[in-house]
Amino acid sequence: MTGVTLAVVGAGLRGLTYARRAHATGAGRVVAVAEPDPQRRAAFATEFGISPDLVHADWKDLAAAGRLADAAFVTTQDRLHTEPAVALADQGYHVLLEKPMATSEHESVLIADAADRNGIMLAVCHVLRYTPYTQALKGLLDQGRIGRLVNVQHLEPVGWWHQAHSFVRGNWRREDTSAPMLLAKSCHDIDWLIYLFGAGPSRVASFGGLSHFRAEERPEHAADRCLDCPLEPSCPYSAPRLYLGCLGDPAREFWPLSAVTAGRTEEEVLEALRTGPYGRCVYATDNDVVDHQEVTMEFADGATCSFTMSAFTPMDHRRTRLFGTHGHIEGDGRVLRVVDFRDGSEELVDTHVVAGPSAAEGHGGGDAGLTDAFLAAVSAGDPSLLRSDAAASLATHRVVWAAERARLSGTVVTL
Ligand SMILES: NC(=O)c1ccc[n+]([C@@H]2O[C@H](COP(=O)([O-])OP(=O)(O)OC[C@H]3O[C@@H](n4cnc5c(N)ncnc54)[C@H](O)[C@@H]3O)[C@@H](O)[C@H]2O)c1
Prior knowledge:
Layout: E1 4-9, H1 13-25, E2 28-34, H2 38-48, E3 55-56, H3 59-64, E4 71-74, H4 82-90, E5 94-97, H5 105-118, E6 122-124, H6 132-142, E7 149-157, H7 160-168, H8 181-184, H9 187-197, E8 203-209, H10 239-244, H11 250-260, H12 266-275, E9 292-298, E10 304-310, E11 319-324, E12 327-331, E13 335-340, E14 346-350, H13 366-380, H14 390-409, E15 413-414
Parallel strand pairs: 1-2, 1-4, 2-3, 4-5, 5-6, 7-10
Antiparallel strand pairs: 7-11, 8-9, 8-15, 9-10, 11-12, 12-13, 13-14
Helix pairs in contact: 1-13, 4-5, 5-14, 9-14
């Protein structure tokens, strides 16, 4: 099998993850790349054996070269999704596009329109839809195992150090350079909940804010950087503890450490913490995204759902309780406990998820499942192998924007 040919735009952590999966299965073959960082570009070109004339420093150069592959992975940062996605769709590439689709509703509409007018497949990377766990849960609901869904409680435990890494010190810490937390992180959860309910909500409300990672919470005598701080040993958010602890573990060296430094020695990590953004005190950065948020949704049939995102947890799989007219399901990302009200029986459905919830661990099988489904869909020319298209993702992103409007205005928003 020669596999689907691929152009990768943005050879960062996500681009590498999907490209490696495509090569590992043989279902795809990377033939072109665009990446401005010279170190990342060279390493990526070498790893995938890309011909030098198809190695570009910018997505615009790749697009200017005409169509080079069957499909493209657009895995640039949040604010650089729209232009490459639209340009490549216009050239006839099928597109695997990282979430969030775009950071505004207007741009997301441009992307969905481009997919539509070119008749291409465009999948947004909602990896949770593709885990074995989700498929087992969706199967139980579709079989009517708990009757009609009446309400759902869903928790996204972001994890204290993950919040500090990505949303206080890292790439997603500010709304103006990335997006609100609900879009940058929890668009996965809103998308997933809508997938389970089988329809979008008719009304949403939301509360939340940035409660802890702010200047007012800074302990007395804390320094601006962990390496200068007398309180570092007793601080839960110590950068040296987090990042030096990654050394020697290949999964954690890939994520979160690769975001901090390409180096793999103690001295290189310490140098990055001395000079770079990841060594900053969590109470002295320029972050503004929320560290906790609730979203409440009401559906047309009166069903309701409450979603909680919190930084103040261990980093773990999402937890969900689903309340139906004939039964109850409680899931921890691995095992689903199903109680049937007709006879009081209890069944444990083990979805055999061995992978953890983090990017280092492939999001519980979601990264692999998504890549495989996208490549199979492109190879067969069959969009039904995807669990959502551009229009479906636009619809779930619209719920995210509505919830943010509700939070900021203190109102209930009707969709
Ligand atoms: N689906 C998920 O579960 C998931 C998880 C993490 C991140 N993400 C999303 O994936 C996207 C990428 O995240 P990441 O962690 O891989 O980021 P990253 O910063 O590691 O990678 C992005 C890459 O794009 C490159 N780039 C910048 N300008 C470019 C240009 N003009 N042309 C081509 N490449 C360019 C950067 O140099 C960088 O290497 C983000 O939108 C993020 O929100 C999704």
